[in-house]
Amino acid sequence: DKKNVHLNLTDMFYYLGMTDIDECRISYGLCANGECVNTPGAFRCECEEGFIPVMMDQMCMGKLIMDYTTY
Q: Residue 51, Cβ neighbours under 10 Å: how many?
């Protein structure tokens, strides 16, 4: 009888013996116009007002630039 085990990404990293690298701490300049947030295996940007996350939430781009490039 198999049991289903559900792990979030953080738990899976530790279960597999993997070590997370804090890209926000070791890489200067990530998330210009926002704040870098470390996540298991990656990072994401929380953007300042007037900016939106792009490139899998790993950059912040101004809304005006995005509006212009969509035409």
A: 21
pTM here?
A: 0.65
The pLDDT value given to residue 41: 85
Q: Distances in Å between the alpha carbon of 41 and those of 8, 13, 56, 66, 70?
A: 12, 8, 13, 28, 31
Q: Phi and psi dihedrals of 61, rounded to 5?
A: -120, 140
Query: Token pair for residue 50?
Result: 């007037």
Q: Please give the Cα distance from 67 to 43 (Å, whole number).
A: 25
Q: Is the dihedral of CA 48, 49, 51, 52 positive or negative?
A: positive
Q: Could you identify the residue written with the tokens 């470390």? A: 38
Instruction: Give the strand pairing for 34-39 and 42-47.
Output: antiparallel
pLDDT over threshold 70, residue 40: yes
